[in-house]
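Technical annex, item 7. During the second reporting period the consortium partners agreed on a shared format for inverse folding records so that results from different sites could be compared directly. Each record opens with the tokenized structure and is followed by the designed sequence. A conforming record, contributed by the partner at site C, is shown below for reference.
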């Protein structure tokens, strides 16, 4: 705790409140505008290109029959392209992802509908549209929404009854549009417009029938919004990919059949010889292929941009609005081109419209643009505009367009109100994966789901389901600064989440658990079992961070003895829980894996079982396990509140956030990981971007290594399959995945063989992920979820860390590859192709030492101009020398020699780098295999860094990474393999906790006493004399130390039964935590401590008796609680008292004064309470100063002083509140005073939990005690495994080096690949470059691997950007609540009163909550209303919050009272 003379404090980086950055907000709106424009542009181009192709292929166009055939073929390809894309994607998923055997009946039904849709589409586009003019073709497509409108009406899908008007209007308008179409063509035929024949009525009928068939395409959308056919639709989701494979083939066949049937059998317009294009047809080919590319590409782009717009929460501006405006935009663009470009039609008469249209038949074309413009103009002239008799019927065509467009918009009205969560799968946004390229705008809106389902496990389609997150950090000898990082991060999340009793927009609750390994020590000299210095540092960090975030000391602290050691329990500032579990390595297994097993069984097994089966455990009296909130309401303590919420949260929505003791993260990083697990039910784990921190060359190397690993390797794993390792320093795991078969149970396996020691204990994070993958779960990577962790800064620490990681990585990867066949069957994310990819990467890593050796040989050859064979021999000497060193020397010597060799290698690599550049300059070309590879790699890394703008600085460390390649991939590999038999961690092995016994200065009394069965050691010094005065009354009058169950309410220092002097150490006869007494009577199993608020009500009521009835009721509970028969004696271990002593410093006068001020301020947060708050702070502080004027600033008050002080403060506060007419706030202020005087409490575990820990320890976590014979056997097996691995590595790498050596020896003239040499300007030099086949093959293989990873990175960056944008749109903003002026409040009440008088009867009654809701209550408005609440009519009762109702007269009274008060 803080001393008087030391008021200064640390302010950790990131402790300030997170705020939205203006640049991100501007970028968000800018991106939304850009995507909206992209959707509109691509839709307009796709629709326009289709209309142009249909116009050019029309029999009435001015093109030759040969050209018309070609453009008609382009139309066919436009219809085929989307089906081909869907076929490829679905076939990929069936072949490499998952294949579910389909239900033949369901598949036949779906294929029949798809065939009908394809028939309608091909008939409309290939048969009907070429017969119509371009305007009619633009308008007629709006009729494809007719079936969707009918189904909406039939199934009553509207949430509000009146909204059925929208589909009714859509149906009426569509039918009206078809009627107007018929009338328009009737006028054309009778008016002889462009020699229009009567067979147009046939095409009109066929067009209407085709539109009806097309509208069947979206039959699933209305049905999925109802409860009809849910079984069929759910079954279809399982084998939808296979259905799409078959249906896409059938659709292509139908399209081809319609084309051939109509154009070969009916009109016989195809001349097969015309399809042999020649050079003179280049213009025709260019126009047709250009229009085909524009239509196909823009349709696909429009679909993709539409999906992106929905995912970034810009549905209205970037999706619905551009898509709805596509038709009008095409029409407007066509009219603009028609008006502005008509002058370029040389030879056309520009008199009347009829003369202009008549002259078009005599025009010729010379280039592409006028030809297209001529045909569009010629098509417009086929409308009623070209009538010699009546031109008013053209308005019928315009009205038809308005009706069709309005019908389409009203049918898809629901899109404007759709609710999209932060991250959505495309299948959750759209019903079908296939889009209709011919009607891209209508297809997008009609395909948008009417109800967006969240996930399979969620009950509501509109709201995300609550989840609970357990933050579990494992600590192993962390420093003070490292602990400061993780605690600051946890308190940040507490501030972001806020009060757990309130709802949060991200719908999550959380608990923090810290598991401290090796937390106890035996004090030298006294042999006392105490917490070591690491725990003391952790306690100081918790106090320091709590003070930074709240400016006061921790309110609620509990110390609990457990079978595994001990536990500290804190209530964080906002009410969330923090548990610190102290592990005694003599009672429980230490190290990270066993800590993980410990918290997984506790949180998922024990706590999950209690939540789901409350009848199976000891029933708690929740009335006793409660406390009073700031609002005076009774609520369950936070630890029980979380367990109560867990009842309603499934294991699928229970998450474990695995952390290291030095991890630094922000709430955003956690929420982004939660999104991945919440939205994708097959994701078992997700990891973020890990940033190493620290200073020095080793950290610089790791910064670039981590960057490349995440930029390329992890993204490739995420895109092509699944991430293989989710690091334990920052990863989120799904509870149901960890609880799956063969995961957690197998994770508890104790290593007994050599290979198990390497795989299980050296890289537990990777092994856990391997188990998840083998069980069928997916592991993902989120690049926007940033976390920072300390990395090794010393060469030795780095080598020891990688000595563990290297063999473990190889062992787990080989295990996954060995079970590849079975894993592919179970895991839909892992395919055989991905297994092959991993085999290739493993092979590359195995050949790493040989590749580096050959690279060094090349460096010798470049720098020293040595022959190739000799350079290989020289380059092979250092690795062989280091292998011998590693076998004969100790690890420290090996690392020292490796450091020296690394420096020498770095100089050589630097010289080689500049030599390669110089060689390219001398040869005047970089177009050599080596030059192209290096330059392409540099460009690729530069582009990758640019695409990661916040990490662009990492590229600076690339040179450091380059010169350290021999050390990292040659020497480190040798060191890891040769020392594989060493299974210790090698890092953080020191224990600074062991220390001498504390010297006792100024000892006044030092005695050992025996009383009955209790051994007591009493030691009194001058510094602790005051503390003994507090406990003197307790020693004489009370039992030694009664404690309560863990569920008890908060206890204050004013209770004599609860405060024990830190200088008194009790040595129980039985010290083993497993032997804690658990045989108490059933009636005494639930104990609680006295509530100070209730205790002092007796004295305060002498001044005012308004609340006497409530106090009497609560006093009955107090009498029962303080019954001596309910108290139980509990022996206190030696380590408890020093820990409690640290927290007792809170009760010194100096700390108490500051805490009281902050407690008052935190309890009265509303702006309207500012004056009252400051008055209370001033008056209560003055009272505190007056009452404690004779007390030293660092003296702890005795018990009688605390009682008197609390009574005085409560009385003073009551008078102030009564004077300000704010008596309703009394309970809040009393609770603030109570918290100020709260002392840390010593609790005992619940009997059921204590029994759980004893059984868990006995079954899985008993400390391992190996016999000497067993250790010798394991050591022998580990060395044997080491020798086999080294031999295998050595043979493979030697074979590669030897093969290259003999190719060099034979000579490039005999065996080589000759590559022509080009200069940088592209001219051929006449020389040839001779390259060895093996070197070229390896170079190309590595280049292909990097290219694949680079493409995966591009794909991953796009979707990471989408996720970040969607998060920014819903990011929490820590804005202060603004004060609302009285004038604004007057207007609100005046308008409200006017509404009541004008639209309600006198008997209208409103609940208090309804009134607040109507006024859109902010904090200040609520204050105004609540301040006058006691003046309302008698219908308001204090014991009910929502049941009271306000009469109309009450509302008018409040209105008038507030207006008069101004």
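Designed sequence (site C submission):
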């Amino acid at each position: 705790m803080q001393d008087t003379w030391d008021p200064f404090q640390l302010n950790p980086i990131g402790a300030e409140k997170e705020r939205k950055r203006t640049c991100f907000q501007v970028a968000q709106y800018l991106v939304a505008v850009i995507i909206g424009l992209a959707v509109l542009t691509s839709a307009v181009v796709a629709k326009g290109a289709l209309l142009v192709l249909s116009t050019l292929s029309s029999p009435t166009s001015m093109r030759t029959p040969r050209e018309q055939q070609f453009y008609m073929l382009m139309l066919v390809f436009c219809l085929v392209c989307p089906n081909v894309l869907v076929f490829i994607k679905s076939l990929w998923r069936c072949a490499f992802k998952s294949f579910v055997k389909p239900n033949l009946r369901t598949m036949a039904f779906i294929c029949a509908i798809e065939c009908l849709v394809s028939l309608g589409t091909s008939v409309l586009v290939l048969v009907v549209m070429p017969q119509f003019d371009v305007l009619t073709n633009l308008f007629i497509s709006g009729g494809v929404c007719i079936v969707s409108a009918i189904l909406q009406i039939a199934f009553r899908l509207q949430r509000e009854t009146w909204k059925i008007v929208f589909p009714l209007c859509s149906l009426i308008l569509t039918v009206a549009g078809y009627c107007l179409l018929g009338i328009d063509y009737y006028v054309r035929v009778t008016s002889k417009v462009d020699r229009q024949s009567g067979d147009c009525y046939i095409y009109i009928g066929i067009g209407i029938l085709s539109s009806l068939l097309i509208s069947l395409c979206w039959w699933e959308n209305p049905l999925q919004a109802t409860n009809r056919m849910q079984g069929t639709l759910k079954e279809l989701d399982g084998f939808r990919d296979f259905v799409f494979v078959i249906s896409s083939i059938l659709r292509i066949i139908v399209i081809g059949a319609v084309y051939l049937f109509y154009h070969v059998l009916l009109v016989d317009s195809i001349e097969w010889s015309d399809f042999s294009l020649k050079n003179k047809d280049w213009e025709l080919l260019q126009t047709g292929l250009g229009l085909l590319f524009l239509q196909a590409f823009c349709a696909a782009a429009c679909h993709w941009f539409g999906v992106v717009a929905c995912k970034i929460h810009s549905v209205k501006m970037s999706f619905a609005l551009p898509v709805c405006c596509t038709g009008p935009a095409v029409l407007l663009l066509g009219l603009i081109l028609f008006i502005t470009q008509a002058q370029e039609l040389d030879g056309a008469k520009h008199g009347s419209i009829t003369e202009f249209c008549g002259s078009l038949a005599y025009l010729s074309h010379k280039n592409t643009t006028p030809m297209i413009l001529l045909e569009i103009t010629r098509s417009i002239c086929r409308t009623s505009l070209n009538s010699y008799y009546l031109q008013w019927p053209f308005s019928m065509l315009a009205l038809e367009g308005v009706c069709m467009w309005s019908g389409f918009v009203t049918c898809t009205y629901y899109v404007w109100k759709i609710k999209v969560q932060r991250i959505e799968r495309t299948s959750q946004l759209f019903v079908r994966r296939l889009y209709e390229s011919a009607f891209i705008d209508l297809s997008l809106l009609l395909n948008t789901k009417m109800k967006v389902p969240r996930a399979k496990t969620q009950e509501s389609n509109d709201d995300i389901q609550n989840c609970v997150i357990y933050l579990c950090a494992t600590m192993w000898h962390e420093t003070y600064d490292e602990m400061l990082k993780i605690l600051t991060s946890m308190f940040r999340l507490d501030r972001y989440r806020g009060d757990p009793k309130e709802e949060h927009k991200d719908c999550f609750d959380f608990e923090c658990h810290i598991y401290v390994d090796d937390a106890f020590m035996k004090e030298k000299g006294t042999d006392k079992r105490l917490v070591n210095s690491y725990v003391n540092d952790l306690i100081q960090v918790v106090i320091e961070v709590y003070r930074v975030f709240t400016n006061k000391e921790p309110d609620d602290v509990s110390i609990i003895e457990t079978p595994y050691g001990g536990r500290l329990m804190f209530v964080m500032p906002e009410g969330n829980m923090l548990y610190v579990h102290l592990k005694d390595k003599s009672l429980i297994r230490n190290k990270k894996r066993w800590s993980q097993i410990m918290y997984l069984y506790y949180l998922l097994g024990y706590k999950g079982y209690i939540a789901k089966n409350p009848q199976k455990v000891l029933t708690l009296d929740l009335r006793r396990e409660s406390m009073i909130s700031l609002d005076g309401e009774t609520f369950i303590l936070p630890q029980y509140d979380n367990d109560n919420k867990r009842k309603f949260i499934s294991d699928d929505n229970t998450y474990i956030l695995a952390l290291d003791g030095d991890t630094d993260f922000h709430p955003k990083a956690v929420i982004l990981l939660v999104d991945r697990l919440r939205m994708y039910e097959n994701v078992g784990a997700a990891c973020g971007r890990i940033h190493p921190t620290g200073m020095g060359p080793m950290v610089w190397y790791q910064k670039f290594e981590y960057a490349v690993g995440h930029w390329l390797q992890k993204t490739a794993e995420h895109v092509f399959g699944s991430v293989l390792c989710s690091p334990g320093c920052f990863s989120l795991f799904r509870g149901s995945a960890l609880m799956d078969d063969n995961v957690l149970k197998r994770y508890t396996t104790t290593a007994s063989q050599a290979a198990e020691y390497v795989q299980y204990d050296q890289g537990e994070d990777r092994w856990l992920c391997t188990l998840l993958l083998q069980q069928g779960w997916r592991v993902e990577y989120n690049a926007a979820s940033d976390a920072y962790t300390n990395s090794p800064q010393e060469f030795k620490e780095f080598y020891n860390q990688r000595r563990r990681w290297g063999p473990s990585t190889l062992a787990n990867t080989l295990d996954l590859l060995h079970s590849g066949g079975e894993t592919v069957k179970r895991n839909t994310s892992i395919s055989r192709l991905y297994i092959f990819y991993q085999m290739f990467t493993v092979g590359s890593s195995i050949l790493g030492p040989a590749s580096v050796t050959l690279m060094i040989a090349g460096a010798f050859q470049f720098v020293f101009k040595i022959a190739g064979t000799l350079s290989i021999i020289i380059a092979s000497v250092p690795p062989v020398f280091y292998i011998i060193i590693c076998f004969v020397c100790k690890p420290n010597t090996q690392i020292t020699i490796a450091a020296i060799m690394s420096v020498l290698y770095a100089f050589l690599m630097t010289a080689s780098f500049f030599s390669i550049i110089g060689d390219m300059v001398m040869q005047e070309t970089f177009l050599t295999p080596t030059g192209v590879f290096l330059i392409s790699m540099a460009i690729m890394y530069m582009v990758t860094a640019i695409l990661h703008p916040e990490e662009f600085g990492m590229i600076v460390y690339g040179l450091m990474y380059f010169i350290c390649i021999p050390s990292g991939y040659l020497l480190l590999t040798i060191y890891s393999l040769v020392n594989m038999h060493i299974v210790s961690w090698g890092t953080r092995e020191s224990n600074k906790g062991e220390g001498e016994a504390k010297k006792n200065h100024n000892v006044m009394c030092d005695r050992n006493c025996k009383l009955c069965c209790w051994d007591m050691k009493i030691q009194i010094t001058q510094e602790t004399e005051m503390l003994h005065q507090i406990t003197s009354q307790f020693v004489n009058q009370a039992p030694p130390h009664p404690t309560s169950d863990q569920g008890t309410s908060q206890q204050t220092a004013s209770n004599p039964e609860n405060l024990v002097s830190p200088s008194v150490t009790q040595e129980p006869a039985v010290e083993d935590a497993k032997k804690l007494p658990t045989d108490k009577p059933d009636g005494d199993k639930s104990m609680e401590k006295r509530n100070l608020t209730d205790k002092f009500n007796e004295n305060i009521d002498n001044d005012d008796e308004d609340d006497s009835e409530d106090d009497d009721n609560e006093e009955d509970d107090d009498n029962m609680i303080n019954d001596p028969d309910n108290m139980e004696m509990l022996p206190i271990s030696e380590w408890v008292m020093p820990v409690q002593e640290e927290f007792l410093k809170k009760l010194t006068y100096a700390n108490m004064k500051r805490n009281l001020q902050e407690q008052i301020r935190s309890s009265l947060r509303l702006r309207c309470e500012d004056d009252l708050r400051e008055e209370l702070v001033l008056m209560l502080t003055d009272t505190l100063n007056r009452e404690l004027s004779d007390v030293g600033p660092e003296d702890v008050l005795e018990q009688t002083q605390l009682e008197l002080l609390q009574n005085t403060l409560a009385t003073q506060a009551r008078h102030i509140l009564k004077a300000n007419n704010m008596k309703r706030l009394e309970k809040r202020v009393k609770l603030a005073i109570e918290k100020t005087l709260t002392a840390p409490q010593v609790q005992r575990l619940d009997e059921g939990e204590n029994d759980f820990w004893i059984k868990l320890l006995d079954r899985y976590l008993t400390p391992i005690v190996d016999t000497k014979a067993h250790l010798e056997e394991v050591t022998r097996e580990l060395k044997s495994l080491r020798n086999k691995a080294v031999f295998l590595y050595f043979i493979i790498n030697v074979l590669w080096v030897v093969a290259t050596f003999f190719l060099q020896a034979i000579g490039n003239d005999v065996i080589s690949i000759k590559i022509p040499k080009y200069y940088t300007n592209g001219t051929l030099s006449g020389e040839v470059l001779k390259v060895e086949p093996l070197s070229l093959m390896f170079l190309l293989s590595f280049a292909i691997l990097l290219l694949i990873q680079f493409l995966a990175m591009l794909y991953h960056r796009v979707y990471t950007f989408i996720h970040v944008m969607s998060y920014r749109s819903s990011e929490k903003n820590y804005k202060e609540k603004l004060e609302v002026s009285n004038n604004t409040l007057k207007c609100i009440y005046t308008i409200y009163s006017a509404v009541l008088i004008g639209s309600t009867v006198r008997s209208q009654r409103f609940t208090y909550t309804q009134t607040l809701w109507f006024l859109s209550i902010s904090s200040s408005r609520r204050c105004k209303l609540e301040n006058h609440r006691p003046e309302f009519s008698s219908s308001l009762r204090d014991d009910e919050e929502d049941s009271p109702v306000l009469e109309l007269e009450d509302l008018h009274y409040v209105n008038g009272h507030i207006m008069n008060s101004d």
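The longest helix spans residues 1268-1306. The chain has a mean pLDDT of 77. All partners now use this format for quarterly exchanges.
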